[in-house]
Amino acid sequence: MSPSRESAGAFVLLGKEAAPVPYKPKNPCARPGCPELTSARFCPAHAKQDTREYERYRRDPAINKRYGRAWRRIRDRYIAAHPLCEKCSDAGRITPAREVHHIIPLSAGGTHETDNLMSVCSPCHSGITLGENNRRRG
């Protein structure tokens, strides 16, 4: 039996009434002077502005050169051709790919060639990247 919403705002689950789980209270936007309440760090208008400022001023310029417009086009073409996560497919799961991973990192001499790319979901990409970073440090 799935939960159903009653008109009073409570949920009924297996014949018992339960109050809905409250959300975390909203905080003011982190941009000075903005009165908007948000559950994220910035309100939607200032989130775009913060991202733009990060890309322009705080991000390493070498990374901007590596992952510019040309990379976005290569990435979009690769995702279109390989829409499923290759790591999950090897494990027998079907998961849509959200990211493209360089098998040999660009910092280690890898390229944007298709034989050096792998389409992966976000959890798989995080796991691969974490493993690579641990190997380099250790």
Question: In a few lines, what is going on in this structure?
Answer:
It contains 5 helices and 7 strands, in the order E-E-E-E-E-H-H-H-H-E-E-H.
Integer tally of domains: 2
Helix and strand string, N-terminal first? Answer: EEEEEHHHHEEH
Total number of strands:
7
| Largest sheet: number of strands, sense, barrel closure | 3 strands, antiparallel
What Rg is obtained from the alpha carbons, in whole angstroms? 22 Å
Structural class: alpha+beta
- Mean pLDDT across the residues is 84
Strand percent estimate: 5-15%
Shape: extended
Q: For the record, give the distance between the C-alpha atoms at the N and C termini, rounded to a whole number.
A: 50 Å
Number of helices, counting only DSSP H or I runs of 4 residues or more: 5
Q: Which consecutive residue ranges, at least 5 long each, have pLDDT under 50? A: 1-10
* Helical residue percent band: 25-40%
Spatial arrangement of strands, main beta sheet: 1-2-3
